[in-house]
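We keep the chain:
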Amino acid sequence: MSHSSSDVQRSNDMPVLGLGTWQNAAPDACADAVATALDMGYRHVDTAQAYDNEEHVGEGIARSSVPREDVFLATKVWIDNLAPDDVRASTEESLERLGVDAVDLLYVHWPAGAYDPAETLGAFDALYDDGLIDRVGISNFEPDLVTEAVETTDAPIFANQIECHPLHPQAELRAHCADHGIEVVAYSPLARGEVFEVPEIQSVAEKHGVSEAQVSLAWLREKGVTAIPKATGEAHIRDNWSSRTLDLDDVDVATIDGIDREERMIDPGFAPW
């Protein structure tokens, strides 16, 4: 199925393209990137406690011309803060740093460290019930952990944020999330720059007269995946935004699907796989 360029937002109000902010901890650069993206048309901003930039993200939102209620804002609770009391305390600190009353989506960053399904997700349920978060998210959860989370939490699991790109397409995990009605959000959607060196992606980019980044982001959109590429400079922020108007045909998608490489870029020792 091909998505039109107007399909920037799904019925669940999560825009299908967002701005990632991982490794963007320089105060001015981070705030500038967020404000630039929002003023350009982005409405989805992703951060995390571990990124050490929530304050700068909040400043960028405040500095932009876009009202807070029009921004889909997501952050994540780090693995050290997943005991119930720490979930609440650290989330309240995140909200204070961001300068907001609530976030649209709060993720368990990794199922690691202090993560305990019943206790951690119970604390997320309480935040949801108290209106501090609008949606519950998980991140880096494999299929069995997704099922366990769905069966454990009262609030619906809205999204699973995972590494996903043409070199690590995650077909099985995407299908499992779809079966449970869970959105997939792709981090490192450009494989940390590796997509620029892949011949199949280069050929599709040349065919359409666009960047390899746009091709990769359009491919994710064709798969029903929300992407949150990190970008700091205005040129990259704009190039990623332009992917919304790129419609790949079936041959393009098949070409990218046929890439014979499997490379995971993010693989910490505490990962669940």
Summary: Residues 1-11 have pLDDT under 50 and may be disordered. Residues 84-98 form the longest helix (15 residues). The beta strands are 19-20, 44-46, 72-77, 105-108, 136-139, 157-163, 183-187, 226-227. The CA atoms of residues 88 and 210 lie 44 Å apart.
